[in-house]
Design brief:
heterodimer; A: mainly beta; seven-stranded mixed sheet; 11 strands; globular; B: mainly beta; six-stranded mixed sheet; five-stranded antiparallel sheet; 1 helix
Amino acid sequence: DVKVTQSSRYLVKRTGEKVFLECVQDMDHENMFWYRQDPGLGLRLIYFSYDVKMKEKGDIPEGYSVSREKKERFSLILESASTNQTSMYLCASSLRTGFGSPLHFGNGTRLTVT
Amino acid sequence: KNQVEQSPQSLIILEGKNCTLQCNYTVSPFSNLRWYKQDTGRGPVSLTIMTFSENTKSNGRYTATLDADTKQSSLHITASQLSDSASYICVVRAGLQAQLWSRKERGSTLGRLYFGRGTQLTVWP
């Protein structure tokens, strides 16, 4: 079974802090994704990566950056946290070439910015 | 505009009863549609995938349907259990032709994903 592990379940940070969210997958998947999930809005794509050191912006990249130095690890960085970044953050991975390949999600990091 | 709409937004049923969740989409071109189940405090997990040529597919007590002509899908849950309480998310994958996003993936044949906002199902004993 694919396992996607997010380093923290809950985080509380102050406005202006730099925040790192870490995600590791153990199935050698090429694609990795960061989503945020807010009530009434569903999942929205922040960034994705299809290979080491490669990244592409999703629908809401403003205020975020990412890093993928190793295939199994994908990090989301909030350069200067703001209260409107309080949310549930979900990491996911998938195979590159399978059109029917599902997303495998971690259990999320609930970030609160005060 | 490519969209995925789910209804109802929330639903409460008694244990043992059946229910049907709806997903309407305007995504074009269409590649496939997937239903995910998200338990509270967990990430979504895939239940089933529907492709253009499939009308009905079952996975235990879950049966998904797809009408590609009307761009509608449903997820029917039979003999509900307390463990069915969750959010159910419909996700549609676009085909390749119109998706700039997919062309950025080297060697990939995947199109962009469009997410519904989910239906929150609560099963009461």
